[in-house]
Amino acid sequence: MPRLRARSTHLKNFPATLASVARKQGVDGGDIEIWFGDEARIGQKNKITRRWARRGTRPSAPQDLRTASAYIFGAICPAEGKAAGLILPWCNTEAMNLQLAAISAKVAPGRHAVLLLDQAGWHLTPQLDVPANISIVPLPAKCPELNPQENVWEFMRDNWLSNRIFTCYENLVDHCCHAWNKLVEQPWTVMSIGLRDWERFNQPPLHGRKRLSGPPEAIIASHLAPLPSVSPGIAVTSPRRAGAITGNEAGLKIRATRGSSGPGELCYRVRPLATELKSAMRGRVLPRPVSSE
After folding, report:
1. Model-level pTM?
2. Residue intervals in the chain for CATH 3.30.420.10
3. CB–CB of 217/253 below 8 Å?
4. CA spacing 20 to 30 A to 9: which of 83, 140, 172, 181?
5. What is the pLDDT of residues 107-119, one digit of tens each?
6. Measured between alpha carbons, how far is 132 from 21 in angstroms, rounded to an integer?
7. Residue 149 CB: number of other CB atoms within 10 A?
8. Do residues 147 and 116 lie in contact, with contact meaning Cβ atoms separated by under 8 Å?
9. Residue by residue, what is the 3-state secondary structure of 201-223?
10. What's the pLDDT tens digit per position in 216-260?
């Protein structure tokens, strides 16, 4: 299908796109902030969402037929937990210029923002006044799943904006401002909703890992990787596996030693192994786990 091919092409070419932006802007790849932007219309004809209620009851939800509405222009940087937003009465090029200025003010000094947007007319028009520290990259058409900002709208509606009656336009704007400010105060929520594997430029993936084959003990040993606990910019080198791994009939016991190599101390962790262990056991019964030493 064309939509799936466009999505696959975007994911495949995204690192090359970021590298091209970094070269064009004269910045290092690590100095790029990835932002996602979108708009949501909130009106007096509000949505009804699920709510907790006592078993056996069917609670009622108010419904308004008036038509006053406003637009939330929102953008998030999941890697940094940052968000920038405006509540505006219209959704057009002038409003988008104001949103770009708000995003530009949130970008850290010396860094460059890559802003991913859908292909709405006011996102790609040449009349936009794009700040020098922002580059706009369009997302494929009909692929809202590639934009985490869509999930932010869903979260805000489910928790702060639905099942409510807005008495007037000013009351509607107040509710939108309150909801957006609550999101900004929760950077961990922005990161939880917005982080994706494919957006992490020059960083290890969050979930996807190369599958390994072999006994569970060998898989665990290969996943035992050092985590440097030193300040950024200090290089720490050490063997990949420095801990002692044992497996016995009672279960899998892991002993990870702590040591130092170079200027900083190293600690060790075992990454999640659910997929690899399931593939490795192949009919074997996984022994009862024992606590780590």
Report:
1. 0.69
2. 2-48+63-194
3. no
4. 83
5. 999 999 999 999 9
6. 12
7. 25
8. yes
9. CCCCCCCCCCCCCCCHHHHHHHH
10. 444 444 444 333 333 333 333 333 333 333 333 223 333 333 333
